[in-house]
Amino acid sequence: MIRAFQDAAISATIQMGGTVATVAPDQVLALFGYPEAHEDDAERAVDAGLDVIAQISALSPPRSFQVRLGIASGLALATEAQAIGEPSFVAIGLCDLASPNSILVAASTRRLLGSRFVCENASQYVLTGASEPLNACRVTGRRYVASRFRGKHSKTALRLIGRDQELRQLLALWKRAKAGEGQVALICGEAGIGKSHLCESFLQCLRKKSYATFRYQCSERHLHSPFYPVINQLEHAMGFEQTDGPELKLKKLEAGLRHAVETSQEELALYARLLSISKPKNDPSFDVTPQRQKDLTISALCRRLQRLAAKRPVIIVLADAHWID
Predict the structure, then answer these.
(1) Matching CATH number, 2-143, of 3.40.50.1110, 1.10.10.60, 3.30.70.1230, 3.90.930.1
(2) Which residues of the chain have pLDDT under 70?
């Protein structure tokens, strides 16, 4: 049982780019942001915590047991074997206060999470050895966000400054696209100069117009997950829930695809396989090679976009393309 817990915690930490500092029989201390920092270390820590809970919950009896997680952010004196400072003290204290199979995050971490996770309202907790109560909240799950930028700034009104020329260029391309001349715009540059902000401002200029938008968010953590941005967008567009079974997902998929455009049974089967849904009963037999199935899937995805574009203008936003699989 102890080894199963340790394996789950260690694998989830490493997969999310964290470092395992200490491993005790009943406790694992993981560091995110050391020795290598990422702009989303807080999100990586919460993702790792949710993965640990999922792995522990999936263990079959009689090995079934529960885990508690605490996460805090801040400055610490860190080595590969330990982290001395307030974050580790708070995180360990929150572990003791968390309910079974749950995550408590300190306010210092909650401020960094944006809207990517479902968080309950903050409450005050009294940590042993602390001079005053601490604000923390429980994370109950993940939430779909259309883009990293919107996830970070969903509740913040940001003003676009110094990008009037670029915005006019995008609007000119959009005018051509509406006239039937398909256009492609590449927005590139160093991190933090406002690429995503420019894109969001462009879309806001069109919010009163009739058009369809497809957002594909690539992820550094899914470099080796084929079709990850496409699958993620489809699952959200079809209204999939974590509790949905294969049959319900298949019904939602069929309804969602055919509501937008005409979809053949063969295309439905390709989409079902792409989303790892069990085959429908009337699924035609696909006795093809993996490469051939990939080609058929890409063709089906392209046909759907073409059919939608024949009905009304379509905008495809591909964010962080350098991280695509």
Answers:
(1) 3.30.70.1230
(2) 60-63, 146-147, 149-157, 208-209, 279-286
Indicate the length of the chain as a whole number: 325
Q: List Cβ neighbours of 146 (8 Å cut-off, separation of 6 or more).
A: 215, 217
The pTM (predicted TM-score) of the whole model is 0.74
* Predicted pLDDT at 99: 93
CATH of range 156-323; options 1.10.8, 1.10.3470, 1.20.120, 3.40.50 = 3.40.50
User: Are the C-beta atoms of residues 77 and 89 closer than 8 Å to each other?
Assistant: no
With contact defined as beta carbons under 8 Å apart, do 43 and 116 qualify? yes
Query: Per-domain residue ranges for the chain?
Result: 2-143, 156-323
Do 2-143 and 156-323 fold alike per CATH?
no
Whole-number Å distance between alpha carbons of 66 and 57: 7
